[in-house]
Every structure is written in structure tokens, then in C-alpha cells.
Design goal:
461 residues; 10 helices; 62% helix; elongated; 10% strand
């Protein structure tokens, strides 16, 4: 018995001291730019003390109603819950894989009634035993597999973070879109009411012989345009409410409102931080890197198949016709054994598996580099998009103010008899269209604001 324990201990120590074949992971060399393309000139007096990505999402979206919607979505959204389930699966897979590094111990008990010439009395034999089996991880095959499973677990955790920041962006963007439709609906309803008053005045003037019938028809066109826009906006509002409801894990329904779109707090200049920090901030980049770590470890698993496999077995038990004599005298038995299996011919299976592992590892490295490059592109596009959309919105504000004054003067000229109603029709349509475009420009600015926060990796803490 002492000799068996010594043998087992010796083999276990040899396994622990064994090597791990295959490449150790090193992060690939990356071409990291010194700064993001699209970065605006710094304005220290307006910059917050922390980079934009490190701000908590409630500090980025300060509308209390929007904060409620995001919290509800992070709790009830099905994609987030599915991602949590995937993490639990990966944790279980890691436990299964890691168990291969340890010996397997099994117990057995059997009762057998036997009748033959040697045992004419048909005695009943009670047999109990313990069996130990252990495949020595001398080449690190199981340790590499555990390394791969651990990286896969981390990858699922980062994948959940990807889902979280994508969900925050989706809820914010849908909410901003809803508030944009609300603003456009309000503009359309006010315009329709004003146009109905113009049509009423023109109708009275036509009946009094002051205006032509075309002035009535042209006023009707203004009313019909605004009313058609109202119908379209009511449809868009309900559909956007349904979209938000699904994001929050609800059945389709109405959504409460908070601040108006033009009143949403947001930074005029966004401090993007250093590009090198993006590698640690973006969960999709970290997810891709952990996939590479897992693929790199699998190369070691495949390489270990070329080498001999050392197995250790041991049994200890007792057999007796009475329970009281199990551990006494000749009724006990034990055995220790070991074996080595060396693959000699597998028809190219092991070699092909090794080549496959390397090819998958190379693919994972390329995917990682591609993800990093796309991350830099997302930030650059977000920076230039937010800055330019802000400038565009400011210009549209100026243009809308000009159209408003033009439409007012055209109506004054018409009422004074200096021009036809066609001029009023044209300028009113331009003003109405410009108002709708301005609201859409506000939405584009806030949408880029949310996208930039996501691109920088913010919101998943």
C-alpha cells in the first residue's frame, strides 16, 4: 500500500513538472495610431475631468426618463439575459475541462451468489472496491485545454459587455428618434392649424370676390401636406414606441416622455482619450483577443497528440461472504498499473488536426487585428460625424430662421395685395420642410453622440 502511494505521488509530481507543448500567448504587434482621425482642437475650459468613455452612462444621458428606460432594458432585455446564460454555460464547460487534470476515483459494491463444484453451498460474495485512473498531463494537453476554456469564458463575459453597450446605444438612439418624431408631430400640428386659418381666410376672400379660387386651392395644398405628415409621424411614433418596448423586454406599448430633444444635455466637445486605451476599453476588442488566446492554446492541445500518453490505474478492494471480514486477511486485494500509448498510424488525423488548430489560430489573430482596426474607424467616424452633424444643425437653425421670416413677409405682402398666394405657398412649404429637417438634424447629432460613446467603449461597467 505504501509503495502504491509512493508511485502515485511520483507520477503526480512528474505531471506537475511536465512541460506544456505549443506556443505561449503573446499579443500580436498592432499598428496603433497616435491620435484619432477626426479629433477636434482641444478646448480645455470645456473638457470634463475624465475621458468620455470613462464617464458612467447616467452622466452621459441625464434625462431621468431615458435613465429609467436604460435601467429597465439592462435588467429585462432578452439579449442581455441570453448572454448571461452563455456565461454560465462557459463556466460549466471550464469546470468540465479542468476536471481532466485530476485523477478519477470510483467506488463499487457488488453482491454475487455463486453455485459450482468449488462452492457447493452456493455462498453469497460481497465485493467492495475503489478504482483510480489518471492520465498524466505530462505534455500539458489538459492544461492547454483549460487555458482555452478559461479564455472562452472571458470571451463570453466580454460578449455580454458588448451586448450591454449596444443595448444602451440602441435605447438612447430609439428614444432620441421618438422625441424627434414628437417634435415633428408638434410642428406639423401647429402648421396644419395655421394653414387651416389661412384657408378659411382665403375662402372668405374668394366668396367676397377679393381672391381667386386658386388661392383657396393653394391653401388647401398647405393643409393637406401638413395633415399627411401628421399621419406618417403618428405611424412612426407608434412603431418607435414598439421598438423601445421590445428593447426593454416588454410587449409593445406606449413609452413615457422626458426632456424634449433640443433640451437633451450633451457635451459640445468630446474628449476621446488615447487610442491605445481603446484596446482595453472596447469589450469587442477584448472578446476577439480572448478568442485568439483560446485558439492559441488549442494549438498546444493538438500538438500534444503527437506524444505518448501515460496512464496510471490503481484498484483496492475486498471480497468476503461476511461484511465483518472485508478488511481482514486474504479477502483484501489491490493492484497498481501503468501504461504508455504512442500513436503510430492515424491516417494523417493528428497531423491534420494540428494544421487545423494553427489555421484557426491564424484566423483568430486576423479577426483580432481586424476588430482593432474597425474600432479605430468607429471612433474616427463617430468623432467626425458628431462634430459635423453639430455644425450642420447650427446652419439649419440659421436657415430655418431665415425661412420663417421669409414666410412671414410673404404673407404680409399677400395680405397687402402686393403678391399672389403662390409666393406664400412656396415660402410656407420651405419653412415647414426646414423645420422638419432641423428636428432631424437634432436627432442626427444626438445619435452620433450615443454612437461615439459606444465606439469609445463606454457604458459597460
Amino acid at each position: 500500500m505504501i509503495r502504491m502511494r509512493t508511485t502515485v505521488a511520483t507520477v503526480l509530481l512528474a505531471a506537475l513538472a511536465g512541460c506544456k507543448v505549443g506556443p505561449n500567448y503573446q499579443r500580436p504587434a498592432l499598428d496603433v495610431p497616435g491620435q484619432y482621425r477626426g479629433t477636434a482642437p482641444a478646448l480645455p475650459q470645456q473638457a470634463p475631468p475624465t475621458p468620455f468613455a470613462e464617464m458612467k452612462w447616467p452622466d452621459v444621458y441625464k434625462d431621468d426618463v431615458l435613465q429609467q428606460l436604460i435601467k429597465e432594458a439592462l435588467t429585462n432585455n432578452y439579449d442581455v439575459r441570453i448572454a448571461a446564460s452563455v456565461i454560465m454555460q462557459a463556466q460549466a464547460s471550464l469546470g468540465i475541462t479542468r476536471a481532466n487534470q485530476f485523477p478519477s476515483l470510483a467506488g463499487s459494491f457488488a453482491i454475487q451468489n455463486e453455485r459450482n463444484s468449488a462452492y457447493p453451498g452456493a455462498p453469497t460474495f460481497d465485493t467492495a472496491g475503489l478504482s483510480l485512473s489518471y492520465i498524466v498531463d505530462f505534455w500539458g494537453q489538459y492544461r492547454r485545454a483549460t487555458e482555452s476554456a478559461r479564455a472562452a469564458l472571458l470571451s463570453t463575459q466580454y460578449a455580454q459587455n458588448v451586448v450591454r453597450i449596444t443595448l444602451i446605444d440602441s435605447v438612447a438612439a430609439a428614444y432620441f428618434q421618438l422625441r424627434a418624431f414628437d417634435a415633428q408631430l408638434d410642428i406639423s400640428q401647429q402648421t396644419a392649424a395655421a394653414d387651416r386659418e389661412i384657408m378659411r381666410i382665403n375662402t372668405i376672400g374668394f366668396k367676397g370676390g377679393e381672391y381667386a379660387i386658386t388661392d383657396v386651392y393653394q391653401a388647401q395644398l398647405l393643409v393637406q401636406t401638413a395633415e399627411a405628415q401628421i399621419i406618417t409621424l403618428q405611424q412612426s411614433i407608434e412603431q418607435t414606441e414598439n421598438q423601445l418596448s421590445i428593447l426593454m423586454g416588454r410587449n409593445p406599448g406606449s413609452i413615457i416622455r422626458g426632456l424634449k430633444l433640443v433640451d437633451q444635455p450633451h457635451l459640445s466637445e468630446v474628449p476621446a482619450g488615447l487610442p491605445s486605451a481603446l484596446l482595453e476599453r472596447r469589450p469587442d476588442v477584448q472578446q476577439a483577443e480572448q478568442a485568439l488566446v483560446a485558439a492559441n492554446a488549442n494549438v498546444g492541445v493538438a500538438k500534444a497528440n503527437f506524444f505518448p500518453q501515460l496512464s496510471l490505474t490503481g484498484t483496492f478492494g475486498a471480497q468476503s461472504t461476511a461484511l465483518s471480514s472485508f478488511l481482514q486477511g486474504p479477502a483484501t486485494f489491490w493492484a497498481v498499473g501503468g501504461g504508455v500509448v504512442q500513436p503510430l498510424f492515424e491516417g494523417g488525423r493528428i497531423t491534420s488536426g494540428y494544421k487545423l488548430a494553427w489555421a484557426q489560430r491564424d484566423q483568430a489573430e486576423l479577426s483580432y487585428k481586424q476588430t482593432v482596426q474597425q474600432a479605430f474607424a468607429d471612433v474616427s467616424n463617430g468623432l467626425v460625424g458628431y462634430r459635423q452633424s453639430r455644425l450642420y444643425r447650427i446652419k439649419l437653425q440659421e436657415q430655418t430662421a431665415t425661412y420663417e421670416e421669409t414666410a412671414r413677409l410673404a404673407n404680409v405682402r399677400f395680405m397687402g395685395g402686393y403678391t399672389s398666394f403662390l409666393e406664400v405657398l412656396y415660402t410656407q412649404q420651405q419653412y415647414f420642410t426646414s423645420e422638419l429637417s432641423l428636428t432631424q438634424a437634432w436627432y442626427a447629432e444626438m445619435q452620433y453622440y450615443a454612437q461615439l460613446y459606444q465606439a469609445l467603449g463606454g457604458g459597460w461597467e
